[in-house]
Design goal:
Blueprint lengths: L4 H16 L19 E4 L12 E3 L5 E3 L6 E6 L4 H17 L4 E6 L4 H10 L6 E3 L20 E5 L5 E6 L5 H10 L20 E2 L1
Parallel strand pairs: 4-5, 5-6
Antiparallel strand pairs: 1-8, 2-3, 3-9, 4-7, 7-8
């Protein structure tokens, strides 16, 4: 029997409501045994991983983006009034520059207007792309225990596009993220980026 549109949208709407309600972590997620949004790290055993992520759409700049294979990817779910999102953004932008194109970075903006999202990125020097998904549709790419349950959530994908780890909440430290990237098959932790670094970002179309 075909499920109605209302039935299909219900999980998405619930997840989106949880994500934007004060950037708080979510407890009581049932049998998913999900870590609350307190910076808890989840590393997923190989046999428990979900299929590769298929992710594409329009960015906050109005460009088309398609997630490509071949590099470890860091995906960060954020919006501009989320306080922990604001706190961790300097670390993400610094690491994007420090990896110098060896690691893909992608944001998922789930709440702002496009203008507000662009202003946030401009003011904080965010040079990697963010998919613009205020309806939360982009979150449907992440299933099972990889489904974001707090904002921010940061997911690390291997070069095949498989989520191998995530941080549900604010990233505890630079070392936390660099170790997850390396465990996913990425390069070792880079030295801090020099001010003004601007690596090329792949994975965009058009």
């Amino acid at each position: 029997m075909r499920r109605s549109t209302r039935t299909l949208l219900a999980p998405l709407l619930l997840t989106l409501a949880l994500l934007v309600s004060g950037c708080s972590g979510v407890t009581g997620t049932g049998e998913l045994d999900y870590v609350p949004g307190n910076g808890g790290v989840v590393e997923i055993a190989a046999e428990d991983r979900e299929p590769p992520v298929e992710l594409s759409g329009e960015t906050t700049d109005g460009e088309q983006y398609t997630l490509e294979r071949g590099r470890v990817t860091v995906v960060n779910v954020w919006f501009s009034t989320c306080v922990p999102c604001i706190r961790e953004m300097p670390m993400l932008t610094e690491l994007f520059a420090a990896y110098d194109g060896q690691v893909e970075f992608l944001g998922l903006n789930i709440r702002d207007s496009a203008a507000n999202a662009r202003a946030f990125e401009r003011d904080r020097g965010v040079e990697y792309p963010s998919l613009f998904s205020p309806d939360g549709e982009a979150l449907l790419a992440f299933t099972g225990r990889t489904s974001p349950r707090a904002a921010p959530t940061t997911l690390v994908l291997d070069e095949d596009g498989v989520v191998v780890s995530l941080v549900n909440g604010e990233i505890p430290s630079r070392t936390t993220l660099t170790e997850l990237v390396e465990a996913a098959g990425g390069p070792p932790a880079p030295p801090p980026a020099e001010a003004g670094s601007s690596p090329e970002q792949g994975g965009t179309d058009g």
